[in-house]
């Protein structure tokens, strides 16, 4: 993986991701303390509202933002959204009312909903070889996991010598550093075809390509499976660790570290595994195994209570490993499912649809844990994952060819596409575009 950093532009872009993630981690801690200043014991309600605003912005604004900025240079979009996020972070220490917090969080998350899919769509163009791109996906996964582990520790260290308000300046520095690193990188320029389309078509094109592609419909269902069990872990771990095990904040950190360590282990293993195995086999195996682990753990908790602490940590590490094995290869599927000019649109569609899964499973995990208990709640979320796996198996069948034979009865004989591919009936790597509006085996 380290050989990727010989690519100067990728090294700068990865650095931009890392410093922005550190800034985001500091923001999360500072925002929690700011909420407590405003609301005291009701800070959880404030944070819950802020995170709901985040998810709504991600789901509702990402495709719209992508359609709006498609006419702009990609580098300018990335730098501009980083600077907007830095400006919002700079304003947060000076707010005097909760509505101002909510408004600024909405602006910040709207910028993130623009930046993240645009950044993800750039990487396949910077790393055109699939082997390199696969390793970049694993590095990105590890960066997220390391941020979850290190940012709270860094924030805790800084808070020993300064007020939490200064953490917002760390966030400003993170987003500003990200903008600077993007500025010194070279980002390939896309053709003007996509930008020339009418706004309505730009708005719907990514979603249309996504839902017309069998492997991406399968990916969406697998996102639901991963989000179901993942939401249980992220929402209810604190309740089990603090309430049932009687552990303190250190215990919670250890439990989440176990989950993150499992995820990082998968990210390290996957590049070599995906060199030899198809994406579908790896992702489906991960989903099946995740469901089995969740069902067994849910039944154990329901019938016999929580297991020994060491067993609990091993299970959380296994869930992290399997969760990552489902999600990490997703960029490979998106990369091969659209032409370069359409990749920003389908990455935005993936961003919105995958967060819609979390918008469903987060509240379900929280409600179920409180209403029916942890064991039944985990069984319920595992049941949702079973539905996701079943839908994925149906819409992304094994053996579906990437280059199906098809014809074009609607195209004239002298059409450039027919001339380039040897006639009306032909075979080539198939993606949904202007000449191919329906997948051959589905319509």
UniProtKB/TrEMBL annotation:
The keyword Membrane applies. GO terms for molecular function: transmembrane transporter activity. GO terms for cellular component: plasma membrane. The keyword Transmembrane applies. Keywords: Cell membrane, Membrane, Transmembrane, Transmembrane helix. It is a multi-pass membrane protein. CDD domains: MFS_MefA_like. It is found in: Cell membrane. Pfam families: MFS_1. InterPro entries: MFS, MFS_trans_sf. The chain crosses the membrane at residues 12-36, 42-64, 173-195, 216-239, 251-270, 282-303, 309-334, 346-365, 371-392. Its main location: membrane. PANTHER family: INTEGRAL MEMBRANE EFFLUX PROTEIN-RELATED, STAPHYLOFERRIN A TRANSPORTER. This is Major Facilitator Superfamily protein. It comes from Roseovarius tolerans.
